[in-house]
From TrEMBL:
Pfam families assigned: Ribosomal_L13e, VWA, Vwaint
Annotated region (Disordered), positions in chain: 515-543, 800-823
GO biological process, one term: translation
Domain of life: Eukaryota
Name the UniProt record assigns to this protein: 60S ribosomal protein L13
Gene source species: Bombardia bombarda
UniProt domain VWFA: residue ranges: 56-224
SUPFAM superfamilies assigned to the protein according to its UniProt record, in alphabetical order: vWA-like
Entry keywords, A to Z: Ribonucleoprotein, Ribosomal protein
One cellular component term from this protein's GO annotations in UniProt: cytosolic large ribosomal subunit
UniProt biased composition (Basic and acidic residues): 803-813
Family as reported in the entry's similarity comment: Belongs to the eukaryotic ribosomal protein eL13 family.
Signal peptide annotation: none
GO molecular function: RNA binding; structural constituent of ribosome
Amino acid sequence: MAPIQACHPVDLEPVCPAVSTPGLEMHPFSSQTGLLVKVHPPKQPGNSQPAHVPCDIVLVIDISRSMSNSAEPPRTLTLDENDRLGVVTFSAQAKTLEDLKPMTSANKKKTNESIERMEPQTSTNLWDGICEGLGLFDKASPSSGRRVPALMVLTDGKPNHIPPAQGFVPKLRSYEPLPATIHTFGFGYDLESGLLKSIAEVGRGNYSFIPDAGMIGTAFVHAVANLQSTFANNAILQLTYPRKVTLRETIGQSVIRQDPVFLDMDRTQMTIDLGNLQYGQSRDIYLQYDKIVNVSPIVQAVLKYQHFTPITLQVTTQANLLNPSTTLRQSVIAYHVSRSAIIAFLSSLFFIRLDSGYEVLDRDMDSRPFATELQQLIATLPAKQGEFDSDPACRSLVEDLCGASPNGQISLALSDSKHFKRWGPHYLLSLAGAHARQICNSFKDPGPLMYSINSPLFIHCRDRINNAFDDLRPPKPTCTHKPHNSKTTISMKSYNQPSNTCFAGRSTVLLADNTAAASSSHKAGQNHDHGSNDSPPTQGGGRLIRIGRLRAGMRVQTPKGPRTVVAVLKTPVSRAALCMVGGGLLVTPHHPVSLDGGQSWTFPKDVSRRSVPYSGSVYSVLLQRDADVDAHAIMVDGVWGVSLGHGLTRAEQVVGGDVRVHRFLGDYDAVVGSLKKLHGSSNFRKDWQRRVRCHFDQPGKKVARRIARRAKAAAVAPRPVDKLRPIVRCPTVKYNRRTRLGRGFSLAELKAAGIPKLQAPTIGISVDHRRANLSEEGLAANVERLKAYKARLIVFPRKSNKPKSEDSSKEDQTAETTSSIRSAFGVEEAIAPGFSEIKKSDLPKAVEGGAYRALRNARSQARLVGVREKRIKDREAEEKAKK
């Protein structure tokens, strides 16, 4: 392993003092176009803190053949009893080698032995490994102290075994909040680095590219050192600002980037995910905004974080964008503006898909246009200006871009087609993540080496772990034969069919006794399966009943005696391939059965006489919970068949293997939880598939309806296909200004138009005897509508040789007709609105003193008229008495 380059602290900016809470600052630029938000964690822990921050680390290791040439992952390193470590391996399926446990001397030895016993296998089930690793955090006992949780995935990133149907990114997001950050490590050059980068971003972790065994040490040294110097986790920054101000992030697109949201009519909020914060390393966010006019641009910032507990702490501050009062040097501003520009350029090289995240560039793509864009970036980069040549931070960014060998890896990756095809995209994704998270991820690149150089804790942890790596003995070879380099993707369609673990509906089940069958079938099965094929009692006293008549509460016979049925799941299928075994049992190919009385179990496809296409319903049965695996089986058509939730979920539970082992179908709690999510009756009988329609025939139905309308119009011609309807107002205050066609004319409207109510339906007029006219305008408008219709109405005689007096004349019968009344009498003749405009000159003159005061005075005079008259009379009487 190459030695770590010595990096002494550089005076990038004033370092915050060692305090228990982080600092939060905002620095508006004097140009009034940019804002730098700085988060300052404490420089180092208090004196009472241990030599490093305790960690909970779970290693998820790919042991597929494609990983067999990589050096073994680091083992317990410098973890102590304050740390906990778990190990998970995955190939075709995930397997827990070691649960999350404290790294005492004994546990260290056991863990190292487990890692040394790993052997290469076939497939790469990456998703199963991630789920198994995250599950260790949930299963582990609660931590007695504060520990940094982290999941470290070591793989070549080429999953070929049961990936999530909706994609890794959406599926992983459905698990949020995650119990730990996820850090991915991609080995070799033939890897899906875009997928690993996306998983790391969703997991708020970091992606590291490891091209060969020589880089394994430095990648893990820095990854663990960053974890052991973590100050806080789950940190987010929320910025609230006026809606007229437009703040923009400057580091380009990412999988976890959130668009600003409008809190109300005046405020907007932007949320930026920061992930973990390290001691002594600031997090700097450069934002741009447009010129501000006629608004008070107060920006409020809130930093929310956790100290490895569910308790959320926060720090707040605010700044006025029009009052730049920054104390930062120009070199610091140039550095962060340039760093953001580099990240934005690197992220622009990759396309982000909704399901899989970053899409890696095609290796056959011409990289010369990217090299041209890089040269344009270098020419305009603030850090490249001559006045900042002596600044170490600015110089490190320039060396990353175009420095002399061995630096300048960005330029080398894009300008040389050989390097671009081999390692360019993988390396650029890793470097962009290190700059975005501001973490030091290796000894190689000058830019990331500038991060955490002011953190004594990080430097101490890094040097200590690096020395431990140098003292590791060479790993033992785990693959002594030539590996079979197969990339065949394994199909698991047989394990993802709705008809799995089911019996055909005509099969018969052996009940425990006659009483249970009689009572239960009478209570639960009266309205289903009326044609009964139930058999008389058997020699053992039990009764055979069709599985379609089986209900919850019945007791069936098992190899361990009677057990109660908890649920019956019914699933319709069409032409499903079922296997015929035993005396005629039809069962799905991968439903374990026993032909020797429960002594051994096998798949029906291995002992079937023939395969039968079956259409109908298939059934699965869940029995009462029992610790005995053999108590989860029922006798179906003379063959023992396993039931749901039998308890065998791992191959390690059975010596020699057992075909009944299944991670989901053997988990009783998981099966019950899934059944509860379905809709149906309490006995779990589900028939919802019959009532599900996808309406894929909508275009055809539309054409069929149009053809039917034309055929109807031709059949009833010359009669119109519809009837005359009145114009009515829509209900409710909100819509009563609108008009539409009503159900039918009222009797009052027909009477006013001179049309008998019994004759109206015979001449194409709809009648609604329940409707009443509430306005004279509506009544008059509909009467005119009826009269206009009657004037244009043509009545043909029933018998052409015997016309009646009310029939139309022969000249009218030959006139042009229409097939639709609505086209001739539509809603265009709507009722006039219930209000009209009034000119300002027609308005009454204003009341002197105000209308309100005039009304109050009039009301007071009306109420007190009697009192005032009495007072006048009393006053006159007093005056007469004085005389």
